[in-house]
Give the backbone structure.
Amino acid sequence: MKTLIGVITGTKRDKNETQIAWIRPLAAETDDSWEAVASPESEFPTRGSIFWPRAAGAKENALIRFHARENDIKNGGPDEFMAVDPQMAFEVIDLRAAGDCEQVRLALTYGIELPYLVSPKYLIRCADDLVVGPITLVFDSSGKVTLEKSNRARIHCYQLAENAFLGIELEGVTRTILAGNLLPTPYSYVDWDEDRLVMRRAIEVAAKMKGNGTNLPRQLIEDATAQLTQFGADANARLEIYRLTRAKQLAADTQQVVSLAGEIFAGLRDHPSVVQEVQKFVQAQRDEIRSKIESEHTAEQDAITKLRQQRKETEESLRSASRQLVETETRLKEQASAIESALAGRIDQVLGNVPKLLADVALLKPLLEGRPSQNQATPSRVTEILALGEGAPLNLEWPSAKAKITDIKELRTRVIRALRALGVATVAYQPIHAGFASGLVPIVTGARALEALEAYQVKDDLAVWTGSERP
């Protein structure tokens, strides 16, 4: 059976929900060359297509490599041939114009324009006869074709000549596929992963080689690259060289180094030179932190000691003030008690002899107004009155009269004359004299009350009414 290259013209699911497909032959292999199938209908009657049972993963318009044989089921249907050993043909995208593998990676990272994606995986043709893949391509949000995000750390890379590729004409478009099968062993590998991941892997490889460079990571990467290329390299070594070369370019870019600082450190943290520097840095940081903590601790201790002293002084001042307050309260209570006792005694004394109090008031008023009476307001008499609150004896006897009046007319005449002289209404003598005559103490109020009582004194002569008749 000869090998055929065809295109999937249709797919569907049968009654058992198994995917099936139909393939239209396009080219056939003859004596190590390929010839186009001129008339598929005549070579594969009746409709020029080949039935593919159990076509899992088949996709319409995808190119496929297969063999054809007569259909085992003879039911008189149109599918007289069926596909045997079908394999997806590796379609090739030629990006040699973009440059080498790294430049092609950058182009695919930013996205390229393609009219369709029908094959599950593609081979990418780069400069220097290098072919990378198979890889999965996807459309991004802007409609451009980019690399799939996963499985990019170790992509096969083959070195193939021009005769390894086959052009297939389909609907006026030439699509390129790999003429034969891929070699079992790749020439090399490429790492088309993100920069930060490639940098970490490259530094890890360089660190394992124990480079002695002091300008890490760039010198370390250069030393590792030199060691890998010194005695030739196999496919795996070429992958590491590719990573180191890419990482060296990243290390030369200051902005890239800043953005990849975490990956650089993760890759270098186990390197002897880095470990030694990290230990020195950590010890210096510890010493600095310890010194700072000790200084802050000393300052805190001084502040605490000062606060304790201030607290002690404040507590002593508070105790002294409390003692003074207690003494003052005790003294004030004693004074208040003495005053209350004196006041209570005085009140009792006053309430016990109301007439004496009224007499004292009558005697003190002329002194308080600055007009001492003719007989009573003498300094000795005032002293006696003022000494009343101090417990000194007070003589309250009425001065003896020089003349005694028994005639009511004479009394009326003298009193009226005295009242007029003092500016008191003459009718005032009647109630006053009535009080005296009854043995009571007359109480007089008003502006001229004291003068009304003084009317019974005429100059230095005192007259005492001794009669029983009321005026």
